[in-house]
Amino acid sequence: MRIRMTVMAGVATLGGSLGLYPLFEKSGWFWAGFGAVLAVAGGGLLARRLRLPALLNLVFGLAALLLYLNLAYAADKAWLVFIPSPESVHHLGELAGEGWRAANRYAAPVPLLPGIAMLTAAGIGLVAVLVDMLAVRLHRTAPAGLPLLAMYSVPAAVREDGVGWLAFGAGALGFLALLMADSREKVGGWGRTVTTRSRPPEVPLAGTRARPGEEARPDAAALAASGRRIAVGAVAVAVLLPAAVPGLQPRAVFGLGGGSGQGTRTVTTPDPLVSLKRELTRLDDSVVLTYRTDDPQGPDYLRLYALDRFDGDRWTYSPLKSSSKDKLVDGRALPPPPGLSIGRTHRVTTRVLVRPEVRNMTFLPVPYAPSNVAIKGDWRVHPSSLMLYSLRDSAGGRSYTVQSLRADPTTAQLAAAGGYPADVVSHYTAVPKNIPPQVRRLAEQITAGSATALTQAVRLQRWFTVGGGFSYDLSAPAPQHGSDLVDFLLHSRRGYCEQYAASMALLARILGIPSRVAMGYTPGSEVRPGEWVVRSRDAHAWPELYFQGTGWVRFEPTPAGAAGQGTAVTPSYSQPAVTAGGESGGQTGQTPATSAPGEETSASPSTGARHRDDEGPGNRTTQQDDGQGGFAATPWLAGALLALLLMGVPMALRTFTRRRRWSALAPPRAPSPGAPARTRTATPDPAGAAHAAWRELHDDALDHGLEWRASDSPRATARRLGELLELDAAGARALTRIARAEELARYSRSRSAEPVERLRADVRTVRESFAASVSRRARLRARLLPPSTMTQTRDALRTAGDRILNVTARVNALPARLRRR
């Protein structure tokens, strides 16, 4: 059964699964995987206890994993809580589909939804099945490291920071422990350790004798210690060397070295837009932060990122080159906001408390434009965008105070903004050449007749919120390619804030207006005077357009309220009345009127547009499936019938073997009158009958779990079985006759006097005695899964494998033989 190796295989799998920790928000995934590993280990032990072939060892492991998943996630729909039923298996399939969709929808770390937890348990369980098969059953421990390594490849591919050294070390030590256990078993298979008498370390006094147990034995302690030192050293080198090389880490060990130039380092963070999708679709809608502000106009948006590059597919920010001069120091003013030189401004103080549950928030959410920040830790500022970030710290659980300079531009100031600086134009109006002509024509059609950049921006915003026929839908997929944004603008017109912000910024750049996409949080909800709460549903993206003298100005093309982003706020300067000639009427705070009574009704999204799960394509598919009759019993019945047939193969093979043995010894039949001589049956060989009876006795003993010693003579075997089972008189006589017939057939030239039918009846009598002497479980196993059949199958497979290897060797040696000739 190899219990020790089974335990070590489970420990190695659990150690390797620790590398998955960066993918999840909570630790419940580990316990789900722990149960899967236990179930697989139990299935492997059972298969080895029954002495089944290696392929059935794999089947038992998978079956045990299915039973565990069924018990853990579909017990209410199973038979007797743990037996899979069609309903429970169907539920597991649906749960797996939900988990797969959620894993594609969220960015790591993902919430531990039931579907994700089940997929994780199933994945760890499959790795456990492969490790148990390779290391324990097939004695191939080294290749068992491949499935363990596969678990590390998942976080390495999903997250840029990979796996921590502690998790990697735990998995590596688990695999090394598995290798050591396998080596110990292989050495122990040679028998007891051979001891040698040599000179003891201390010479006894004259006339004394060494005490028992003090004889010299082979000292393997030094060899074992060397092996452990090599193993620990290899793991240490694998963990510490990459961290010590500056080119492999953002910073070297203990923060020394790294980067190039004057201590400059490139900052890498997860994709902000992926994080936005995850926050907007969180099911728990957890609190992200709370803050207090003294802004008399009400709080502004809290910005995290400023995405200034559009590569044709996605918006990203330029690489941040961090240096020591960018580090935040309490009391030191931040760089002034770019472009802000005229207009009214007022200072705002905001005190923020980020919840401790927030993970991996390496950018600070602050109102634009921050002028001074008081926070503990290593935090830095990007001068051109005023993004605040850290190379090593997270905002989770921290409180900080932000003093910001909030601009309050008027419509007239924005309309009268002068030309743009050359560096702003070259960087913030860059558009890929592969933008379709239809999108360029669309931007010109929307803003036709506009004489100022403000009027163009207002027309773009109005087209998204009122006149373009767009609907807010969180179920829309995140744009991955430029064609997705084109489809959003020209065809589907269905999406959430990411599509709205990215599309308006792109159209603004096509028109020559410097623009970028900002991402962060809306003001949230006021819980008490002056105190606000921001939740995950308040995550948001919006475009920022540049106006000389005012700097970066926020616009809001995403629908607000119940039919859109619930806490989004449209700024007053972006709502002037637009005349027929396209010029601003000069009034602030006036909402644009619709051109027709039915335009706003038809274009504005309905409440149901935000939640399209009730009427989307997925629901239509479900209705079609229901219309086809629901659950189809035919596939399940066919699968159950196939399973029963497979289970009956060993029993049928045993029956076929028994009948074949006796049919070859059938008594001669009387020939029919006039029949040819060749049709007459030959007289059965008495020695063959004795051998057949003895082989049947051997197989019946194996089937009932009785020990069979190949070195014993037939008489010794009969005596030992009789004493072991305490057979009755009839059984003892039958066993004696079978043994005597086998002895005569082996060692005597005289023929056995026992006829075939008598021996066959004796075998049947002894089989019944075997069955009466063992437990019910052994009787069922002898009937349903006879080990003798498994042995025959294993021998046949081994023989076939040997023949294949011989043929392969001959084919490989054929070219050499031909060359010799």
From TrEMBL:
Keyword Transport appears in the UniProt entry: no
Keywords: Membrane, Transmembrane, Transmembrane helix
Chain ranges of the Transglutaminase-like domain: 489-559
Transmembrane residue ranges: 29-47, 54-75, 112-134, 164-181, 633-653
Keyword Transmembrane belongs to the record: yes
Pfam family name, one: Transglut_core
Domain of life: Bacteria
Coiled coil: none
Chain spans, region Disordered: 191-216, 561-631, 664-690
Biased composition (Low complexity): 561-571, 675-690
Name of the molecule in the record: DUF3488 and transglutaminase-like domain-containing protein
